[in-house]
What we know:
It is built from ten helices and five strands, in the order E-E-H-H-E-H-H-H-E-E-H-H-H-H-H. The protein has helices at 21-51, 58-84, 94-127, 132-135, 138-163, 180-184, 192-225, 230-258, 264-288, 291-310; strands at 4-5, 11-14, 90-93, 167-168, 172-173. The strands form two sheets. The chain has a three-stranded mixed beta sheet with strand order 3-2-5. A two-stranded antiparallel ribbon has the order 1-4. The longest helix is centred in the middle third of the chain and has 34 residues, at 94-127. 34% of the residues are buried.
Amino acid sequence: MKRVNHSVTSEFVFLGLTNSWDIQLLLFLVSSMLYVASMMGNCLIIFTVASDPHLHSPMYFLLSNLSFIDVGISSATSPKMIFDLFKKHKVISFRGCIIQIFFIHAIGGVEMVLLITMAFDRYVAICKPLHYLTMMSPQMCIFFLITAWVVGLIHSVIQLVFIVNLPLCGQLLDSFYCDLPQFIKLACMNTYRLELLVSISSGFMSVGSFFILIISYIVIIFTVLKHSSSGSYKALSTLSAHVTVVVLFFGPTIFFYTWPSSSTHLDKFLALFDAVVTPFLNPLIYTLRNQEMKVAMRRVFRHLMGYRQIS
């Protein structure tokens, strides 16, 4: 096989999800609807939290930032995947591939830290309510958010430094988007150390964050179960939404970067689920299980309708 590198390899070719026309049509319809719905749902949450004074609290500040991250995760891969479904030659430039990898890992790293912060917020609210306003002050919320972005950017840049100058011996990516495992397989060298780096960086970070979250929620749930008030049941309902989002996010991520010999078809299914379905489910989970959010959305809707009638 001819040895090439990124100086002459200006683009990569995606093999895509399937060659079946019927399945492609179904994927196009479902993915398009879910993408539009996830964008509208997450943007609605961001707008509602920003415009309703009743939601100006740490929990909803973090929730609106999670919705912003979901918009970024979905937009990093879904539009091109949907656009490519009916293209015979699915290509992406070398620069576009690197940019896609950068955003996937940067935004993914931010979401991991943000989910841990949301768990900490619920821990303080339930286990240390008297110290909540001090420990989760606006300054602390901003600090947590900045920390999340710094961690995400550093996590992404460190990995790109090791792969951006790899000598490449191919252009075919058996996927519908660029990511480290597929990119590394094209290298004209022994990639054991690079694969180990990815497992340590992305895999260990995912598994570590997941266990921190699960342990945190177990502690919180035991604390909630000691009480029998209506407020405790409300807190338990909120926690169940958080746990559901954590499982949806970390399940595919852990599989991608820690499973030793994964199936290509399962990889593609989980990648599609992570890119299209999860960002759509997150706003549903948080709105359907949060009465305060639903009331706030109705207030915002009535306000907008009243403003339109006056205009």
